[in-house]
């Protein structure tokens, strides 16, 4: 079998001058396992059990085993996974939930859903993950404003776990629940523990672009807390009790459909291989680009699944580089141009400080290059050459 890292690109001409390169090559993965997925999807179609079919339970069992957690509760998206946990814990108006400001909006948007207040935290300059010192400052700000600290949501950004050695003791000291947002980091490890087995509970996403993605929206919660699982399963089914026509709490509809579970079973089967392939691609990028950019750093205690490969450049360089690469068929992306505490919908919420200097600096300097498990060396060399040429031209 051809390994993911050396698989041929889907389009034979993708290495030709200016031929478009996919940012994330889902087609290459489909070429590898598409027939198996099609067979499993056809099984679901034949059974007509499109909601809560047996594939859902099977996937939950396999996912929990992979992560080293006792339980997995699948759901309709990573955002719903976050929201369900806040609902299950009874987070409400007057409560403070601490979120890094350098993240996708879903991490914070679920907090106002339940009436609580997001409080934004700065990140570390090397890993881009939550800064424990800034978290302490944010907790003090929340208390000064009369809020009750309830939950901290560390984000495993770009595939790398947050600094749980520092964050977990802070949470314990202040009585905070730890909700690990590993939407980008599922499959990574911290001190040899998989994300999904850290903190009080973990939320993840199976959006198609994620390292473990389905063919639509999907998500899951992982936890060792059996009582929490009971509440979560009720909440995702309209707050049902003994059956769907008894409602014991205010819930929502947030199920993972059976077809997506079938897709994810097949993708999970090759996930370990793809993680290893992503790491090889990232290490090669680092070696080839270390002299022209600030390349990503992985904490010695961690492994990353490399949801994104993100470099830093001098201020004012990024957008020009993106334009030149686009002209050569090399796509880029910026995660994130505007930190959460500066977003129009969120800027009235409190933060650890009047400014969050690292978040604001990163927003001006970061750019992400194509990254997936099927990025062959020839295509990667083309990307690197384009980056070096563009930076040399100034």
UniProtKB/TrEMBL annotation:
Keywords: Aminotransferase, Pyridoxal phosphate, Transferase. One of its GO terms (biological process) is polysaccharide biosynthetic process. The keyword Transferase applies. Coiled coil: none annotated. It comes from the Bacteria. The keyword Transferase applies. The active site is at residue 210. PANTHER family: TRANSAMINASE, UDP-2-ACETAMIDO-2-DEOXY-3-OXO-D-GLUCURONATE AMINOTRANSFERASE. Belongs to the DegT/DnrJ/EryC1 family. This is DegT/DnrJ/EryC1/StrS aminotransferase. It comes from Xanthobacter autotrophicus (strain ATCC BAA-1158 / Py2).
């Amino acid at each position: 079998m051809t390994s993911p890292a050396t698989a041929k690109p889907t389009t034979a001409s993708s290495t030709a001058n200016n031929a478009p390169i996919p940012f994330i090559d889902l087609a290459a993965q489909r070429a590898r396992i598409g027939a198996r997925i099609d067979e499993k999807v056809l099984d679901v179609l034949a059974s007509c059990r499109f909601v809560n079919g047996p594939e859902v339970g099977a996937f939950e069992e396999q996912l929990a085993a992979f992560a080293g957690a006792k339980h997995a509760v699948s759901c309709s998206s990573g955002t719903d996974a976050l929201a369900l946990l806040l609902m299950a814990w009874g987070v409400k108006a007057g409560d403070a939930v601490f979120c890094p400001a350098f993240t996708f909006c879903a991490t914070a948007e679920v907090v106002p859903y339940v009436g609580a207040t997001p409080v934004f935290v700065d990140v570390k300059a090397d890993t881009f993950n939550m800064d424990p010192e800034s978290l302490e400052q944010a907790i003090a700000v929340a208390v000064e404003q009369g809020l009750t600290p309830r939950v901290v949501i560390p984000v495993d950004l770009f595939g790398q776990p947050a600094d749980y050695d520092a964050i977990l003791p802070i949470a314990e000291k202040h009585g905070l629940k730890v909700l690990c947002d590993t939407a980008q980091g599922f499959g990574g490890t911290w001190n040899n523990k998989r994300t999904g087995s850290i903190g009080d509970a973990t939320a993840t996403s199976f959006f198609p672009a994620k390292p473990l993605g389905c063919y639509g929206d999907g998500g899951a919660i992982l936890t060792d807390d059996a009582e929490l699982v009971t509440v979560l399963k009720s909440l995702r089914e309209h707050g049902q009790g003994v059956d769907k026509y008894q409602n014991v709490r205010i819930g929502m509809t947030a199920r993972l459909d059976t077809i997506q579970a079938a897709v994810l079973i097949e993708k999970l089967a090759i996930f370990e291989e793809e993680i290893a392939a992503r790491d090889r691609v990232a290490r090669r990028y680092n070696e080839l680009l270390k002299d022209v950019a600030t390349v990503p750093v992985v904490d010695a205690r961690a492994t990353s699944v490399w949801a994104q490969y993100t470099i830093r450049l001098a201020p004012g360089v990024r957008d020009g580089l993106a334009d030149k690469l686009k002209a050569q068929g090399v796509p880029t992306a910026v995660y994130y141009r505007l930190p959460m505490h500066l977003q129009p919908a969120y800027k009235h919420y409190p933060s650890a400080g009047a400014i969050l200097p690292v978040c604001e600096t990163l927003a001006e300097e970061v750019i992400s290059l194509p990254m997936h498990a099927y990025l062959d060396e020839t295509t990667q060399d083309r990307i690197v050459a384009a980056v070096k040429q563009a930076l040399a031209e100034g």
